[in-house]
DNA sequence: TAGATTGTTAATCGATTAACAATC
DNA sequence: TAGATTGTTAATCGATTAACAATC
């Protein structure tokens, strides 16, 4: 048995964490309630309490949740107490944007390596990093024990890169390639394809 | 009553469409079955047939689905028979990547306008487009009847931009800002925050 | 204390799947 | 025809919600 907590519950925890962080850092708040959090996120308070109850009791009757305490607990649950080093594959426009994005900081991730196969990009500096030859990818990932990768390569390379990442131990992959990828059991994969998201919304447009 | 087809079903149709297009264009296939499509996508064949049955009968017993016919039908269902002009707000690294991304073509969308508030970016050429002053945003969107927008601005601007977009008629918004946005009923919103996705996956990492 | 809010239960609601008659 | 596959039904499975005792 791995874990019988539904994946859909796990998927909401980062949303809670993000909003709690916002409450604490942007608004200087100390406490909140499932009702307030739910109202801000468009989620029922019952669902928030039920989700959290899978992991323990983090609140107090009458006063709700101490925000920093709940943040800490969510970080533990999601394995974010240390930063994950992330390998980014693909140094095109999107890789460039990801390399320069500072939104990973303090949220559990650090892009530590960037790879590409284009000789004109290899050696280029991106933010603090140097683009490395993708032929070095396996060696670096193994030596550094990298478990998390982001794929920003064209669709026709994505499956090959995925296979190579998995082969050297990567277990969580976020792919921006507009294609379904096959991964073995035990490897988590998540997709980001703006067109898929837009197409879902245009269904509702007249 | 708007439509009683579950949103989760609508969300899978673009995935089917993408894989069908791949089957036709990359592999030159003419026909497929719910079983084959499901196997390629990690979805049960029953679910695919059930999803499609909400909209009509598109297959034939014994032979399955004619791919190009089903593609055409899915495009009609998702309102992709004409291209939607999209307004992109934010011309930073991510806006740059989106402006140069050619994955929108032939999938129902065309980024037609880019806006930013940074004087050093206004007037800059991105792909085929010129970055316009965001103060011109409302006027352009109204005149061009733009209904779809992509937000690639910092979190602290995202709600204001959203409100302004909605006020001039935008009804579908894809936001890359790492923040929950409030929109009125009748406006669809979709989010892309890589950290949220990574955090869901690290739960499963030891 | 009185008011507020939790964690949890049971009921409701909704989605997925197995199975199969129909039929190409 | 025989084999394959659809569309649909009913059963199963899973997620959400309403309600409330417990208690801060």
Summarize the structure.
With 206 residues, chain A is of the alpha/beta class.
Could you characterize the architecture of this molecule?
The structure is a homodimer. With about 210 residues, chain A is of the alpha/beta class. Chain A has two domains: about 5-75, Orthogonal Bundle (Arc Repressor Mutant, subunit A); about 85-195, 3-Layer(aba) Sandwich (Rossmann fold), CATH 3.40.50. Chain A is about 40% helix and about 20% strand. Chain A is built from eight helices and ten strands. The first copy, chain A, has helices spanning about 5-25, 35-40, 45-55, 65-75, 95-100, 135-145, 155-165, 195-200; strands at about 30, 60, 65, 85-90, 110-115, 125, 130-135, 150, 170-175, 190. In chain A, strands 6-7-5-4-8-9-10 form a seven-stranded mixed beta sheet. In chain A, helix 1 packs antiparallel against helix 4 and helix 2 crosses helix 3 (about 45-55). The structure holds a DNA duplex (24 and 24 nucleotides).
List the helices and strands and how they pair.
2 copies of one chain form a homodimer.
Chain A: H1 7-27, E1 31-32, H2 34-41, H3 45-53, E2 59-60, E3 64-66, H4 67-77, E4 84-89, H5 93-100, E5 109-116, E6 125-126, E7 129-133, H6 137-144, E8 148-151, H7 155-167, E9 172-175, E10 188-191, H8 194-202
Parallel strand pairs in A: 4-5, 4-8, 5-7, 8-9, 9-10
Antiparallel strand pairs in A: 1-3, 2-3, 6-7
Helix pairs in contact in A: 1-4, 2-3
The first copy, chain A, binds a DNA duplex (24 and 24 nucleotides) through helix 3 and strand 2.
């Amino acid at each position: 048995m791995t874990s019988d907590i539904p994946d859909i519950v796990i998927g909401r925890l980062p949303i809670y964490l993000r909003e709690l962080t916002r409450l604490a850092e942007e608004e200087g708040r100390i406490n909140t309630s499932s009702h307030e959090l739910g109202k801000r996120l468009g989620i029922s308070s019952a669902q928030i309490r039920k989700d959290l109850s899978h992991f323990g009791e983090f609140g107090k009757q009458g006063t709700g949740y101490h925000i920093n305490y709940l943040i800490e607990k969510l970080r533990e649950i999601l394995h974010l107490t240390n930063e994950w080093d992330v390998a980014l594959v693909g140094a095109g426009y999107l890789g460039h944007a990801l390399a320069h994005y500072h939104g990973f900081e303090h949220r559990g991730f650090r892009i530590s390596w960037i790879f590409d196969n284009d000789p004109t990009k290899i050696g280029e500096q991106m933010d603090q990093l140097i683009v490395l030859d993708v032929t070095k990818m396996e060696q670096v990932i193994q030596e550094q024990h990298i478990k998390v990768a982001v794929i920003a390569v064209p669709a026709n390379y994505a499956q090959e890169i995925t296979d190579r990442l998995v082969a050297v131990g990567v277990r969580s992959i976020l792919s921006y390639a507009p294609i379904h990828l096959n991964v073995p059991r035990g490897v988590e994969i998540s997709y980001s394809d703006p067109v898929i998201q837009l197409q879902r919304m245009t269904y509702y447009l007249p």
